Amino acid sequence: MTATPVRTCIGCRERRPKLALVRLVRDADGVVTVDTRHRAPGRGAYVCATTECVERAVKGGRLTHALRKPCRVAPDVTIAVLQRDSASTALSSGNRADRGSRDEPERSPDPARR
After folding, report:
1. How many domains does the chain have?
2. Residues 5-36 pLDDT 10s
3. CATH classification at residue 72
4. Counting Cβ atoms within 10 Å, is residue 111 exposed (0-12), middle (13-18) or buried (19+)?
5. Residue 78 phi, psi (nearest 5)
6. How many angstroms separate the Cα of 29 from the Cα of each of 26, 71, 73, 74?
7. pTM over 0.85
């Protein structure tokens, strides 16, 4: 049995499974962005996918402390975190957006292959 990696949210300080949190990384220009694949190079910080935790992390200086360098938060970070949360909630509940009827027309056979 393998152990699930656990990380601490810098907003609320709760320990959660790594994949339940959103990873924020500082790029070379000092701008903080969301690392959706959890694979971007460099130091990262983890935050719950809630507005409260993101605001605490940014306004309280916790993000700068966790990343160990001054940083600027991209304006769309909060939106990206919340979108990731809503997407993961939809997937976990089985309500995937790509299920259901499709509005795509039927594909006709390729005439060159006859």
Report:
1. 1
2. 999 999 999 999 999 999 999 998 999 999 98
3. 3.30.1230.10
4. exposed
5. -60, -40
6. 8, 8, 11, 11
7. no
